[in-house]
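Field reference: sequence -> structure
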Amino acid sequence: QENLVESGGGSVQAGDSLRLSCAASGYTLAKSAMAWFRQAPGKEREFVAAIAWFGDRTWYADSVKGRFAISGDSAKSTANLEMNDLKPEDTAVYYCATCGHLYYYDYTIPDAYDYWGQGTQVTVSS
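Structure field:
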């Protein structure tokens, strides 16, 4: 069982920045990618950003491109999400996830990920 723990959430004003961190512990399986998803009240979980260890490739949702940056360390099984110029619509619970497949055809969908953290709340006020 791999455990994921997110940290760094909080309440901020529009235009502020936050940095989320995710660390895997327990049995850390070999993984090809880690990602961040978010879920706002009354909405479905949506993709935010992902990083694949092969070629250090990254993917972003259109809504966060240019504002958010994902980084990570495959050896330490950690992933960070730097969030800048936050907007009220970024308010959500943010979840970290890991992909245990050696390769997956689409890292922007929840099905690619095997383990999920409990989430950390991000609230952005206008």
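Note: The first strand starts at residue 2 and ends at 7.
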